[in-house]
Amino acid sequence: MYIKFLGGAQQVTGSCYFLEVEGLKLMIDCGLFQERDFLSRNWETFPIPPQDIDYVLLSHVHVDHCGLLPKLVLEGFSGKILTTAPSFEMLPIVLEDSAHIQEEDAAYKKKRHRREGRKGPYPEIPLYTVEDALKVFPLLDAVPYKTNLTLNKKVSVCFHDAGHILGSSMVEIIVNDGNKTRNIVFSGDIGQWNKPLVKDPTKFENADYIVMESTYGDRNHEDSASVDDSLARTIIETIGEGGNVVIPTFAIERAQELMFHLSCLVREDRIPYMMMFLDSPMAVDITDVFLRHVNSLDKESKRLFEQGRSPFRFPGMRLIRSVEESKAINNIKGSCLIMAGSGMCTGGRIKHHLKRNIARAESTILFVGYQVKGTLGRELIDGREKVRIHGQMFPVKARIEQIQGFSAHADSDDLLDWLGALESPPKKIFLTHGEKEAMSVLSDHIKQKYNWPVHIPEYLEEIDLD
Questions:
Q1: What is the architecture of the domain spanning 224-406?
Q2: Pairing label, strands 209-213, 428-432
Q3: pLDDT tens-digit profile of 22-39?
Q4: Which CATH class is domain 2-219+408-464?
């Protein structure tokens, strides 16, 4: 049994791992690289021939975990893609949206480069098209949580709730060769406990090997109880200045969680009435999936639906699909709140809203999610005075704020507590999906608290687990 780290190695995005075990060749996740320093990896040939892979086991549908699936299929993969039922429904929405963005970005770059008389660092063709994305969907199979699915005579897989987003999972691979049983757990993205929408993450009693995320391995979140206070304060202050609140928003989970908190603030009269927009066709479609999977949500959310108080329907809230409706937001007089993707400002409608508001001192750009190094969102968080949007430079005069309590990732203490449920030490913990500093700090914490072996793999590193 050996593992190769094809992504998420000493970086946050591009999660992808290859596992060869008992005659099976498995890929766990197949994510898009989003950091600017690593974008070229999206265009490289897969290190493992796609036609040789038997199964892709998908932890969840964020693009940094699933966004290269169309390319994998395009290059020859024809096996099965296994994931949970909610992810099965959401993946087509996510990949079609990603393909649209690839096509639109390629067309825009081609037009801009022609106008500027230069060539960019990447091809002026889409990484993949909508037609390519459609070829993924016949390969999908939905698997229930907590159900062992046999892959061959010796290997089975089980998906456990990760508590990160709707449908997210920790992928456990169990190997029984007759003499002994071994297991390797891929944590995916571990969520926070006591969040209002999704259930709590699963804990394990035993694991021989763990491939574990470390996004917030070096820090803890602010008290989640202060989220409503921070959100209300930002809205009230921005309205007082006569500006707009612009929130770069991930379409899956973050948009829905934001609506949950906004609905509470509106119904409790903690903020003045204002127009609020979820300007993302994908987020609107994902919200519909939430409505079809209410039983998969946390008790708090299910109780609201039972009371007829949907957290996605409340006074002032508008769900926007069309381009015309999106453009019409710019004609509104007075303050409004705009949620749009992408969450790290790497593409999508948020860039158009930023262009309209980034130079307005009265407006606020509010971040409610992690911003990877090398993204426009991170540049704004880090205090850049000027930023490039759609090929133009804009002065940053708007107020830049961030609320950490919205994070869908476990923080440092949560990650240590998650490991603490193990009844015996694992043979090895591999830290992935994090920046180098976060991984290093978490590694030290694990060694100090548990004295367990930890390894931080490099990109394309191979390790023999036998």
A1: 3-Layer(aba) Sandwich (3.40)
A2: parallel
A3: 999 999 999 999 888 899
A4: alpha beta
